[in-house]
Amino acid sequence: MLDVRRLRLLRELAHRGTIAAVAEALTYTPSAVSQQLTALEREAGVPLLERTGRSVALTPAARRLVAHTETVLAVLAQAEAELVTGSAELAGTLRIGAFPTAAHTLVAPALVALSRDHPRLELLVTELDPADTPAALRAETLDLALVQEYDYVPPQPESGLDSDPLLEEVVYLAAPAATEVAAHRDSPWIAGTPGTLCQLLTVRACEAAGFTPRIRHHADDFGTVLALVAAGQGVAFVPELGAIAVPEPVTLTPLPIRRRTRLAYRRGTGTHPAIAAARTALHAATGTSGYLSANRAHTGKVRM
What is the pLDDT tens value at each position of the chain, 304 positions in all? Predict the structure, then answer.
């Protein structure tokens, strides 16, 4: 019989690439991970890893086993969810991950509702970049997370996870005056930390307009981004949730670019009462299509 805990380690190795990364993510030692994977090979009766020096690669048999593992873990998660369905009161810990602009505009009001309706449910929130969310969900350091995608930055397929749509936002060009993206071929740009979705959007949207942006500043907080634009340090793309308290010198020009937010969770856990309650609360926090404009208390100008 194959050990589920060892299968999970193999699945993590398939996603993370190295034994050291698996060990760090799941709080094992590298030697313990190696020992468990060796034991899994004995249980499977076929080679699962190809070792070359200090590096390892999954064999074709291991990759097929990982695909089955995703199904097994999802079924077990669904079984656990069904066991607690119908409980008189929600209890335990629910770990929610969110990117910064959603943490204070969407997650905070959802937490108020969840705490009021389910006082025994312990809520833990972690801010993180959406690029790090899938790994955190698979490692079970998060139970539910808000993930995002931009036009020009499509999401990568993620096995073992399910998601449902939450919100779609307009992306603005933040600049001293109302202009088109192409007009800023020679302007300095403000973008997110290299490798983040915001930084990739800046590069790809500008390339679609026919030029490579000259990025002068890197900032992940949109309040900081807008302050830099107001100080004449460059122009930037800002999604609607980030367009709060816009400084007076800044003009926001809506673009035909959208940011979409989804709720992601491990496959099989969507019907777990705590996760279902959080999904409901987050959808309620999003509200109607007028939610964003009603809550964006900006003083800057918006060109419509």
Answer: 889 999 989 998 988 888 988 898 888 898 999 899 999 999 999 999 998 777 789 999 999 999 899 888 888 888 888 777 766 678 889 999 999 889 888 999 999 999 999 999 999 999 988 888 998 999 899 999 999 999 999 887 788 899 999 999 999 999 999 999 999 999 999 999 998 999 999 999 999 999 999 999 999 999 999 999 999 999 999 999 999 889 989 999 999 999 999 999 999 999 999 999 999 999 999 874 344 444 444 445 665 4
Q: Residue 115 and residue 155: Cα distance in Å, rounded? A: 32
User: Which among 63, 136, 148, 66 has a CA at the least distance from the CA of 99?
Assistant: 148
Contact 235, 228 (CB under 8 A): no
- For residue 161, give the nearest of 175, 181, 147 by alpha carbon: 147
DSSP 8-state class, residue 18: S
Angle between helices 4-16 and 30-44 (to 10 degrees): 120
